[in-house]
Design brief:
Keywords: ATP-binding, Cell membrane, Membrane, Nucleotide-binding, Transport. This protein is an alpha/beta fold. It is built from nine helices and twelve strands. The chain has helices at 47-54, 86-93, 111-121, 127-140, 156-168, 186-201, 213-218, 237-242, 247-256, and strands at 9-18, 21-31, 36-40, 62-67, 70-71, 74-77, 80-83, 96-99, 174-178, 205-209, 222-227, 230-235. Strands 8-9-10-3-11-12 form a six-stranded mixed sheet, with helices on both faces. Strands 2-1-4-5 form a four-stranded antiparallel sheet, with helices on one face. Helix 3 (111-121) packs across helix 4 (127-140) and helix 5 (156-168) runs parallel beside helix 6. The longest helix is centred in the last third of the chain and has 16 residues, at 186-201. It is globular. The structure holds adenosine-5'-diphosphate (ADP).
Length: 257
């Protein structure tokens, strides 16, 4: 159980380098249960890498990340840290839903089958239970009427809504969104943001990398501005967006308008 005084995500001094280049230079971040945090920052500032580190799609070079009190990638035994094996890491990853810029649905499966896949294959749920739950989730993202459609028959916005339902099917504690609307035609952005807004209203803990300032302003509890692998500034969205304190935040926000 998550207690109110323990953050759901507790990241301390996270470092990550690629080929000798430091990309994350000591990120500290706590996210409370039920909190919605938007990560803002210029391209290349390390936002995606940080999300991938939380989900262990990247191995961190330094620091620690806990999700719901669970030290990601490690276990303590006899006062020493041990790296977890792949099976344990996969189990930890299942607690976290991730939605990518590209929808990554299985092309040969219908919307329902996409949503059922992980609960059946990974959790061993019965097909009838998984199908029932997929129906509920597709309804939640407004896709009930297209449940038998294949990804190629759906618009980008519809595919992304199915991708959100698919991530929710594993009943994650935390949802990570990596620029979920960046690949969409402008007229399809709103339907995906609406689903995310409802998820936030339902109390889901979310970390969202996005350039959608309206989402940051209206839905997020906090924005975190990153640049050059560090957190430059964070706080209440309206305050940070309308009254940034740091020159780097100011110049980024000016370019976004
Ligand atoms: P952002 O999400 O803020 O745009 P990223 O986390 O995607 O930033 O990237 C940060 C930096 O890390 C960039 O310079 C990028 O080229 C580099 N990078 C990201 N992933 C890799 C990788 N797998 N191999 C090498 N460099 C990478």
């Amino acid at each position: 159980m998550t207690t109110t005084d323990q953050p759901l995500v507790h990241a301390v001094n996270v470092h990550k380098a690629f080929h000798g280049t430091d990309v994350l230079k000591g990120i500290d971040m706590d996210v409370a249960a039920g909190e919605v945090v938007t990560l803002l920052g210029p391209s290349g500032s390390g936002k995606t890498t940080f999300l991938r580190c939380i989900n262990q799609l990247e191995t961190i070079d330094g620091g620690r990340i806990w999700v719901d009190g669970d030290l990601m990638g490690y276990a303590e035994k006899g006062g020493r840290l041990h790296t977890l094996n792949d099976k344990k890491i996969a189990a930890q990853r299942r607690e976290i839903g991730m939605v990518f810029q590209r929808f990554n649905l299985f092309p040969h499966m219908t919307a329902t089958e996409n949503v059922m896949e992980a609960p059946v294959q990974v959790k061993g749920e019965s097909k009838s239970d998984a199908r029932k739950r997929a129906g509920e989730l597709l309804e939640r993202v407004g896709m009930s009427d297209r449940s038998h459609a294949y990804p190629a028959q759906l618009s980008g916005g519809q595919q992304q809504r199915v991708a959100i339902a698919r991530a929710l099917a594993m009943q994650p504690k935390l949802m990570l969104f990596d620029e979920p609307t960046s690949a969409l035609d402008p007229e399809l952005v709103g339907e995906v943001l609406n689903v995310m807004r409802e998820l936030a209203n339902d109390g889901m803990t979310m970390i969202v990398v996005t350039h959608e300032m309206s989402f940051a302003r209206e839905v997020a509890d906090r924005v975190v501005f990153m640049d050059g692998g560090v957190v430059v500034e964070q706080g209440d969205p309206r305050q940070v967006i309308s009254n940034p304190q740091h020159a780097r935040t100011k110049s980024f926000l000016q370019r976004m308008q």
